[in-house]
Design a protein that fits this description.
Layout (H helix, E strand, L loop, with lengths): L19 H5 L6 E6 L3 E3 H13 E7 L1 H5 L11 H9 L20 E6 L9 E3 L6 H13 L64 H4 L17 H12 L10 H8 L5 H5 L16
Parallel strand pairs: 1-3, 3-5
Antiparallel strand pairs: 2-4
Length: 286
């Protein structure tokens, strides 16, 4: 309420009856800051964010989907036609429903879901799924005071989530990999020490380690630390260094591989929010 008393909401379709025509009628740069959430999945999404870019002084990627592509971008692992047939059956065809006018056709799907920065220039990012209240507060404090950091700033910590996690890390050895539902974890010990894949070592801090504190592993929604870069590759490297089979040299490799093979759904685990930035998922590649 304190924030709302200091701003005027210019366009918020989810809350007010705003139309595209209302946005088109605004002068260029009329909006001081546009907080955009969600991945870019349809042609209509693309048109709207380009229009918002034109009408706004600042564009903020708000949340993991806008920042990284989010969970919807896991669909990028499949072709567009394959997705549509899976959703609507073999009888699916493009265009409006039978007998309906052309304007009733659903928005055209883009070939891939995109994070916001692959569609328009982004000035700032408030990450998270959803963004933690503290990080939202940091953004609005800076914005309303007029003391914004340099463009490109991510409103989260530079250091890894492990730095703020209350759990105790001791073993630094990975002897098995389990899924969260398969064990009742020790409430004080590091989840990764217990074999649960927690992305805390490669994820930005800023959420007070909400998920690990509640007994669930970090899934990386705040995005990778600057040091980590590619979250999946960095986590694979970390896991490889943690595996210890009790043997030395080449004799240990088969046993260590057996441990790593226990990781179910590597892409969904290591790139849960960031499939568009996977090394093999760049635009124009399979």
């Amino acid at each position: 309420m304190e924030v709302l008393s200091q701003v005027e909401i210019a366009f918020w379709p989810a809350l007010a009856d705003s139309k595209k025509a209302d946005l088109e009628a605004m002068p260029k740069g009329y909006i001081d800051a546009a907080l955009i959430n969600g991945a870019i999945r349809t042609q209509e999404n693309l048109e709207m964010v380009r229009l918002l870019r034109e009408k706004s002084k600042l564009i903020v990627a708000y949340g993991a989907c806008a920042h990284l592509g989010g969970i919807p971008s896991l669909a990028n692992l499949y072709g567009r036609e394959e997705l549509l047939k899976a959703a609507f059956g073999d009888g699916w065809r493009p265009g409006p429903p039978p007998g309906a006018p052309q304007e009733d056709a659903p928005p055209e799907l883009l070939p891939k879901a995109l994070p916001l920065a692959q569609a328009v220039p982004v000035d700032y990012t408030v990450p998270g799924c959803p963004p933690p209240a503290g990080l939202i507060g940091e953004f609005f404090s800076a914005f309303l005071s007029g003391e914004m950091p340099p463009p490109g700033h991510v409103f989260a910590k530079v250091k890894a989530l492990c730095e703020e996690c209350p759990r105790t890390r001791e073993e630094r050895v990975l002897k098995k990999i389990v899924r969260p539902h398969e064990i009742v974890p020790d409430p004080e010990a590091c989840l990764l020490d217990q074999g649960i894949i927690c992305l805390g070592p490669v994820t930005r801090g800023g959420c007070s380690a909400a998920c690990p504190s509640a007994g669930m592993p970090c899934t990386g929604c705040l995005g990778p630390t600057p040091k980590a870069g590619d979250m999946g590759l960095s986590m694979v490297s970390a896991l490889a260094s943690l595996v210890r089979a009790g043997e030395e040299g080449e004799a240990a490799i088969p046993s260590e591989n057996e441990i790593l093979d226990q990781l179910v759904d590597p892409i969904g685990t290591l790139y849960k929010y960031g499939v568009p930035d996977m090394p093999c998922a760049k635009e124009g590649e399979g």
